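[Target chain]
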Amino acid sequence: ERAPASRAAYHITNMAKHTRKVHITGKYGVRYGASLRKQIKKIEITQHAKYTCSFCGKDCVKRKATGVWNCSSCKKVIAGGAYMMNTAAAVTVRAQIRRLREIAE
């Protein structure tokens, strides 16, 4: 038997409109397992974030494709990591180059 009309309306209006813990990975539902969804959550948050442009200093750099980052302010295209603009390895190399330059001077 069907529920009364008032009860059906109650269920429609009181449905969840936001995710509780899962945030951006809510689109995957219960699929793929909790651990994988947590890893994907971290990756997707970093890849959709806006980064500071090293040329103009504004928070306008967004990911265009894998490893390609584009500043919407100064229109510069920057090569970076797949999911974040500066990878840990790139930061290490940059620090090493700076140290070697200071020694050479």
Observations:
- The chain has a mean pLDDT of 90.
- The CA atoms of residues 16 and 76 lie 41 Å apart.
